[in-house]
Amino acid sequence: MIGSGSFSSLLLNAASLSPVELRLALPRNLQVSCMDVTLPSFHRATSMDLRAWDLHLTVFAKPHAVNTTGLIDMSNITVHSASLEELVVEHGNRWTRRTHVSVDSPVLKQLTASFHACGNIGVSILAPMVDKVCWRCSYAKPICGLGLWGLSEVQLPSVHVLSLHLSPVQDSVIFPNAELSFGAEIDKHMVTNFSGLDLHLSTKGHVFGAFVLHLLGMHRIRTALRNLKIVLLRSEVKDACPVNCFCDEPKNWRTETITLADLENMEIEGLGGEDHEFDFLEVIFRCAPMLKTVTVRLSDGVTPSVDWCTKVNNIFMAYPSVECNADLVSRAKAVC
């Protein structure tokens, strides 16, 4: 173990050398007695590679550090910089109980972040110029959700796309203040405004329509949504709902009307030809008056029946102003 004073002196000595590149790596078995450390200014640095474990780091970069890149591997960081243009924050493959990231960088253009959280996370990002984002937060277990569905991962694969990964949880799991907590957790990751929503649902045989409509009806999502992509993930062994499963609640979701006034494009992958999937498709057509394109794809290995083709065609024919496409070729090479 080293004292925080000694560690700070080491950083100051390094700064006095005015390096163009800074690489700081602390071994896993080396601990700093005081976890809060301020990184001094490195006036000439154009690249910073910082790796430490359980270190609370505050970074201040000088304005004339024109193109600074920081790679930071730790659980709590604060970055204030008038010049930082690219920042990479990685937690590797380890799980952290508490994660806090605060970034205030007016000219930051590229942000990459990866977390593995098994507890609460706090995020504050002020970066109005950012135009490239790759953000991923995985949860050891769902800490929020809606009804049967728990949130397992949040991604921002690009600057205007929000990607949510959800799966059914055990009956014993109850999410208090579900909608409020779910919305607050999503807001933590909203580094930029989004117009596209990708939903990755591990269905395990459950009906998903009621949940997805509940999610799309949330104000934060409903008012931003332009493009919707739903990926239905199925196991090789066909699952079935248990008796009296509440995944299909409320029963009136098939006649529900929500306003998706700005939704223009929808894509659904992994359809299995079940009746509730057609019901969901019809609700979206009815609730999205500005819809321009719809694409549906069968799940791998599913052979489309004549009845499936007829139902899809009837729905598409009812909305001639929408460009509709059905990819009916599965890995079984069946076409109708």
Automatic annotation (TrEMBL):
Superkingdom to which the source organism belongs: Eukaryota
Name the record gives this protein: FBD domain-containing protein
Organism: Triticum turgidum subsp. durum
